[in-house]
Specification:
Largest sheet: 4 strands, antiparallel
Mean pLDDT: 88
Shape: globular
Strand order of the largest sheet: 2-3-4-8
Number of strands: 15
Strand content: 15-25%
Radius of gyration: 23 Å
């Protein structure tokens, strides 16, 4: 998990650096594709979030804004009325002075919630404070993040842990690995990406996966999110950070064809981006005049003779 935390911070750091670059046109195109606005019109919260994550440092628990657990929510206890000893619904975590009004009639915490009897939660963030004052002073803007067992293991039919997941960190990818053979969604279960997503749920951001009726998790939903949703959607930032590390390896989404390109070229590039297809470029931030691009340019000149003047 320490590697995942470090990698999530690296994602935010590299995303911020690439976004602020004046020459990284490929990553600027990634930003425009995900956030649906021009770089010059980016919301300040976008850079503020990346900056906050990039500057994250270790701290004692009670002074920390984010406390990370891998205990499958075992720290939570059912809420009980201290006088009647009757369960009052929900769960509480006294060490962090946080409670959880769980779903399904308060039967479970997030990591243990099921759809069709199957566990489905990769990670869960908790930030609702318990009533009263905690025994020890706590950071006001605090949240806990549980990285559920599903983040680390595949599950057996009975929901018990099976095998450790493979390929869950960028740093574990082989040097020179070909990332064009799988769509971006193939890499959705990187623990670092999941953790960066969860940080978007933490205070002071407190963003939701459901905004204005749009569910913003997984690539197909992320790419379709309108600008007003994208800027406060945790998974948009998670993919944005992930693509920053892939750019460090020379991979990015398909470049938009130059103005005046043929319709089939434009359609092909759009389809590749929509599928999350990664492209390998020798010089990711510079455009080179290949034989194919030269042929395209000549065809455009033939169609528009005024370009010769």
């Amino acid at each position: 998990m320490n590697d995942a935390i470090e990698e999530a911070i690296k994602m935010a750091t590299r995303a911020k650096e690439r976004f602020e670059s004046k020459t990284d046109t490929d990553y600027e195109n990634v930003f425009k594709y995900l956030f649906k606005v021009e770089k010059a019109n980016a919301d300040k919260m976008t850079t503020d979030f990346l900056k906050d994550v990039s500057e994250a440092r270790l701290a004692d628990r009670n002074a920390a804004n984010v406390r990370i657990y891998c205990d499958q929510d075992a720290r939570f206890k059912q809420r009980i009325d201290p006088k009647t000893k009757v369960k009052v619904g929900g769960f509480e975590d006294p060490d962090n002075w946080i409670q959880y009004p769980a779903k399904h009639d308060f039967q479970t915490t997030g990591c243990l919630d099921t759809h069709g009897l199957k566990l489905y939660t990769m990670a869960q963030t908790y930030k609702i404070k318990m009533e009263g004052e905690p025994p020890q002073k706590q950071e006001e803007n605090r949240a806990t993040v549980t990285m559920c067992d599903m983040s680390f293991f595949t599950l057996k039919p009975d929901n018990s842990n099976d095998r450790p997941r493979k390929g869950i960190l960028e740093k574990r990818l082989k040097e020179g690995a070909d990332l064009t053979t799988q769509p971006l969604e193939f890499f959705k279960d990187w623990i670092s990406k999941i953790f960066l997503h969860e940080l978007g749920h933490c205070l002071p951001w407190s963003w939701s996966d459901l905004n204005d009726g749009h569910f913003g998790v997984l690539w197909d939903n992320v790419r379709k999110a309108p600008a007003g949703v994208a800027k406060r959607n945790p998974d948009t930032y998670a993919y944005f950070g992930q693509l920053a590390l892939m750019a460090d390896r020379g991979y990015t989404l398909s470049r938009p064809p130059p103005e005046g390109s043929l319709k089939e070229e434009i359609d092909k590039a759009n389809q590749e981006r929509d599928k999350g297809t990664l492209k390998k470029y020798e010089k990711p931030t510079k455009r080179s005049l290949t034989k194919r691009s030269l042929e395209r340019r000549l065809r455009r000149i033939a169609r528009y003779p005024t370009l010769l003047s």
